[in-house]
Amino acid sequence: MLDENLTILNNYLPKLVENGVQNLINGKSVDAISGKTFDNTTPVDGSFIGKVAEGDAADINEAANAAMDAFDAWRKMPHQERKKIMHAIADKIEEHADEIAVLESYDTGQPIRFMKKAAIRGAANFRYFGDKVIDAQNGLSTPDTNHVNYTMRQAIGPVGIITPWNTPFMLTTWKIAPALASGCTVVHKPAEFSPVTATRLAQLAHEAGLPKGVWNVVHGFGETAGKSLTEHEHIKAVAFIGETTTGTYIMKQGAPTLKRVHLELGGQNPIIVFDDADLDRALDAAIFMKYSLNGERCTSSSRLLLHKDVYAGFVEKLKKRVSNIKVGHPLDPITEVGPMIHPSHQEKVISYGEIGKQDGATLACGGGKPADLPEGGAYVNPTLFIDASKDMRIAQEEVFGPFLTVIPFETEAEAIEIANSVRYGLTAYIWTKDIGRGHRMAHAVEAGMVWINSQNVRHLPAPFGGVKYSGIGRDGGEYSFDFYMETKNISVALGDHDIPQLGVQ
Fold first, then answer.
1. Are residues 310 and 293 in the same domain?
2. Tell me, what CATH number does 105's domain have?
3. What is the pTM of this model?
């Protein structure tokens, strides 16, 4: 299977190396107006993938103008036609799922075993929100004695979408599908570390019949292209997935034009395992939620809180499992953890190994770089720290890699104190057979999403988002429409109700 995936890669890689990755504005692939480019490399071994257009304010302006020009026709398009286009995009994604998975795996270092599923989930996002096109405008009836009041939702206008580098294809569909279903047009700024599949997705959308100007892509850096996008007067809202500090910049930059913002930010999420839990299933969930997707996921369970009565036995099983995690080439189906996105991120993750030791936690396994993988690859050994405390940096800061910190607790109250002791509040995972305790913990933990006796299972109609420094706003189903659409109230008199008269003699 590795050979098969390499064959797929080699069908596309020479074109990327030769032609690079361009912007896509008003339905056309174009170079940056400045002519500038930057190099894109693979974290597998540091080799060259291609030149990427380095957009800036001028390119963002062209894209925003195109999105504004296309907006009226797109929002007025008959519902069934818009639905048909979105379903056609889903069909295109499914048709090219193997290609997308291989390109994303090579571009990001994410194991192919997860990327194939991500591509199919991306298609599901477009199909789901395509089906919601007709309902997106629906509002509420709020009757009064003399009036009929009803609400309706209308597309807010062109929107900016800024996506991260960890699973760019799936997360792009997650943001853009509801925006298009709402009737919004889009200017998308992908992460500079993983530009390939974001561009390929937009190309497939246009092949599926998407009108020009509806979906524009501008590559570049946050300090230039990203900043210009958040400041542009045509852009009515910005949806961002990424690091918390960047989220604060986006709020500041969008304030002068009163931008609506949706921020999906960082996490330091707890998984809390009580002594009455199904420990085998909890072990599977703890490992999966931390070490899948290279640990580069905002919803990962980075802190494992273990009840003292099961601590020793659970840790021993955990050490054995983490030590056996297969690190390797991301296109190899047996690989469970691939390289980090970039050498700079590799060094960051490795540095937390030293920080953990300095803080006084015990390195149970992992840390550092694997010795038997390609030179130039951004690989990190899956790392496990035990006997930690809540105030240690490895329990407070987002590492964003295959790095798990284990903390013991004795009581529910102590578990809640530890869980809530960080500035983040994205997700929490609770394992117990006591359903009353599960509900109590879910109510008390500071998180936007809580799973009881489960790993993270995404349900598209359910709200997705965090509290505290983990973000503002919610995605999913009707919650997405609340962001991409304005709610308008319409009041109709039922008869000749009394109107106060002024100026009558």
1. yes
2. 3.40.605.10
3. 0.95
Helices (DSSP H) in 96-167: which residue ranges? 97-108, 112-131
pLDDT, tens digit (0-9, with 9 covering 90-100), for 167-184 = 999 999 999 999 999 999
Residue type, 481: F
> Are both 189 and 323 inside the same structural domain?
no
| Number of domains composing the chain | 2
Percentage, residues of the chain above pLDDT 70: 100
The CB density around residue 201, as the number of other CB atoms within 10 Å, is: 28
Q: Are 450 and 420 in contact (CB under 8 A)?
A: no
Residue whose token pair is 């013991």: 408
147, 493 Cβ separation under 8 angstroms: yes
Q: Which two tokens stand for residue 330?
A: 């991301």
**Alpha helices, DSSP H, located in 390-463:** 393-396, 412-419, 435-444
- CA distances in angstroms from 269 to 299, 314, 341, 343, 396, listed in the order given: 7, 19, 21, 25, 10
Q: How far is Cα 481 from Cα 479, in angstroms, rounded to an integer?
A: 5
Alpha helices (runs of H) in 185-265, residue ranges in sequence order: 196-207, 227-231, 244-254
Judge contact between 358 and 62, C-beta under 8 A.
Answer: no
Residue 333 and residue 192 in one domain: no
Residue spans of beta strands (DSSP E) within 176-236: 186-189, 215-217
Beta strands in 383-426 (DSSP E): 383-386, 403-409, 424-425
Q: What is the DSSP letter of 321?
A: H
Answer whether residue 461 is part of any domain: no
Residue 125 CA from chain centroid, whole number: 13
The residues that are catalytic are 264, 298
Q: Which domain holds residue 47?
A: 2-265+470-489
Q: At residue 256, what is the residue type?
A: P
Distance between CA atoms of residues 463 and 471, nearest Å? 13
- For 79-97, how does the pLDDT look when each residue is reduced to its tens digit (9 = 90+)? 999 999 999 999 999 999 9
458 found inside a domain: no
Residue 355 belongs to domain with CATH number: 3.40.309.10
Does residue 244 share a domain with residue 212?
A: yes
- Rounded to whole angstroms, the Cα distance separating 215 from 27 reads 8
320 and 354 part of one domain: yes
Span 355-391, pLDDT tens digits = 999 999 999 999 999 988 888 999 999 999 999 999 9
Q: Mean of the pLDDT values across residues 337-347? A: 97
Beta bridge partners of 472: 263
Tokens representing 58?
């001028």
276 shares its domain with 383 = yes
Q: Which residues pair with 408 in a beta bridge?
A: 306
Q: Crossing angle for the helix pair 477-484 and 168-182, nearest 10 degrees? A: 70
The residues facing 386 across adjacent strands are 362
The mean pLDDT of 26-49, rounded to a whole number, is 97
